Amino acid sequence: xxxxxxxxxxxKLDDVREALSxxxxxxxxxxxxxxxxxxxxxxxxxxxxxxxxxxxxxxxxELVVADENLEACINAITAAARTGKIxxxxxxxxxxxxxxRIRSGEENEAAV
Length: 112
Description:
Shape: elongated
Strand order of the largest sheet: 2-5-1-6
Oligomer: single chain
Low-confidence stretches: none
């Protein structure tokens, strides 16, 4: 099993969720985060004073998928989240060694 973490633009969350659902992946967690990379920040004007916004709002999507669903998951996220502009985000994949469903005690892929 693999854990997929994707940092995407907030307005792309619904598109990503729908794309994942279309591939049969239904469970995910979405967290509002802030960050910056090459996109850097930008300046804004507030009450006549200019200030720099370093950290930009993003959404972090986390899901655990079976190894055979990994490529479909990555392709769905990439296609749905891409705008072609800087700051589209990143996808991180890591190994998951064990999953336990608290309610039933099911483990690994049965728990996902």
